[in-house]
Write a structure and sequence with these properties.
With 135 residues, the protein is α/β, with parallel strands linked by helices. It has a single domain, classed as 3-Layer(aba) Sandwich (Rossmann fold). 33% of the residues lie in helices and 25% in strands. The chain contains four helices and six strands; from the N terminus they run βαβαβαβαββ. A six-stranded mixed sheet has the order 3-2-1-4-5-6, with helices on both faces. Helix 3 runs parallel beside helix 4. It is globular, with a radius of gyration of 14 Å.
Length: 135
């Protein structure tokens, strides 16, 4: 059976990432794609991280029939790149990046996968697809 194309939502360990997941859900539903959610946490946070926000996000995903994976790594870009390659990711949904420059997660993903549209969800839940001129 052929794997469906995927909308990948990248989240942190904050409850407010629920808005990203819901935006990704609407995008996936409108294009008949699968929704997957990925969170890459730094290994140094492993003992310090509060589990409640991640559990909350897992429950949001469960209610939307979306798969959520959490990886512990200090190399976020490598984990995300490998995940994209192995999951037929067709679109990416993220929160607003701090700066669009080399070394920034969103910038680096775009450089590695320039054909994958990246939608940014701001704090007021507005979705904006990054244009090539902005990256």
């Amino acid at each position: 059976m052929k794997q469906k194309r995927t909308v990948l939502v990248c989240v942190t360990d904050q409850k407010n990432c629920e808005r990203l997941i819901k935006a990704g859900y609407m995008l996936a539903k409108s294009q008949d794609m699968e929704l997957k959610v990925l969170s890459v946490q730094s290994r140094c946070k492993l003992k310090k991280i509060e589990q409640a926000p991640l559990e909350y996000l897992f429950n949001v995903c469960k209610s939307l029939d979306a798969e959520m994976k959490v990886y512990w790594s200090d190399n976020v870009n490598n984990v995300v790149h490998n995940y994209i390659l192995s999951n037929r990711v067709a679109e990416l949904v993220v929160g607003v990046p701090e700066k669009m420059m080399q070394g920034n997660f969103v910038y680096d993903v775009h450089q590695a996968f320039p054909d994958i549209p990246i939608s940014v969800i701001d704090e007021s839940n507005l979705m904006k697809t990054l244009s090539f001129q902005e990256v």
